[in-house]
Amino acid sequence: MIEKNNKKTIRSWAFFDWANSAYNLVITSTIFPAYYTIITTTNEHGDKVTFFGRTYVNTSLSNYALSFAYLIMALALPILSSIADRRGNKKSFMKFFTYMGGLACVGLYFFKLDTLEMSIILFALAAMGYIGGVLFSNSYLPEIATEEHQDRVSAQGFSYGYIGSVLLQLICFLFVLKPEWFGITDASFPPRLSFLLVGVWWIAFSQIPFSVLPNGTPQASKVKTNIIKDGFSELSKVWGQLKQIKKLKGFLVSFFFYSMGVQTIMLAAAGFAEKTLKLGTAKLIAVILIIQLVAIPGAMLMSYLAKKIGNVNVLIMVVLVWIGCCVYGYYITNEYQFYSLAAIVGLIMGGIQSLSRSTYSKYLPVDTQDTTSFFSFYDVTEKLAIVIGLFSFAYIEEITGNIRYSIIALASFFIIGLILLFVLKKIERKEAPKL
């Protein structure tokens, strides 16, 4: 058994966010999207690229690749969580996905236009490594913190993630902005070096939680069952329990819809900024750094407000702001408007992620033993939402030729999520006190 609310354990767990958030910042949000958009935009073909013989819009291809990675993981997560619950080895899975994602980032050091196919595959593998690691990390939350501390602990994890990723980003920032300081003449070298550093950072700092977190307790009753069948039967079992808990089911359905918007914006925003505003790598990095720094107090603020007015009320307010951001994003035409939008997004980005994770954890039945299976369901829900969101974003750009239409379409997902949060609020009033 893990001692709950132990400061050392919580700090160690939070360092997993410190380690893997470097991937989120550098690969999905700043240097990779800018570098990718620049090198795949040519005088000869414009923004079109060829991937294994088929032509795509460059940003659509990267979004399709991410969508595919999330789909694969959504299908694999039930099986993986079943194995982890059965064998009590979820830390082993955390290690596997960390090493896979970190080494894929190291491989992106060789990314140039003539290695596009292999680089897109590595890009997808890095995403899969991040997704898998986060699932097993999240499943520790109800085991390391009691219910009244889970909002704070969840926010602490995200805060560590923002701080760690910003530190690495600053290091990469020096190479990208001032290559002459280091005698660098190849313009592609600084971003490629950044990808390598992300992989090393990710693997190195993950050793902190790996050294402290326990593996888990094997479930002897499942030793002889079929892995694949057992994995999906676990999801079915969890869904059966969810149907009996109206609050939990109501939250997950709402979470599914607003996650389509939140996660897609976070994954596609950098490509949008580079393509429509031509910010360039330096300005894009500066903007994302501001977002990360604002997100730290944002996550803490959401945790504080949740104590005062309840989790669901805070989520409603935040989703309303996200809807406004989508509308504003459609109309922005210059970098200063983008900066103001980025500041708003930064404030609410960490808050909605942290609060969603802790709200789900607090809604779980008190006697839940197989937390990995429940968080597998949570992660499958989020990953399927990302698949739909990213695919919609890419497809709308492909058929309209205008990435702005993809942004405004995301508002519809937030609106549905908002309506469902109001339904959840009504359920909560009927069944239990506000969180």
UniProtKB/TrEMBL annotation:
Gene3D superfamilies documented for this protein: MFS general substrate transporter like domains
GO cellular component, one term: endomembrane system
Main localization category: membrane
InterPro entries in UniProt: Atg22-like, ATG22/LtaA_families, MFS_dom, MFS_trans_sf
Residues annotated as domain Major facilitator superfamily (MFS) profile: 247-435
Keyword set, alphabetical order: Membrane, Transmembrane, Transmembrane helix, Transport
Protein name, UniProt field: MFS transporter, UMF1 family
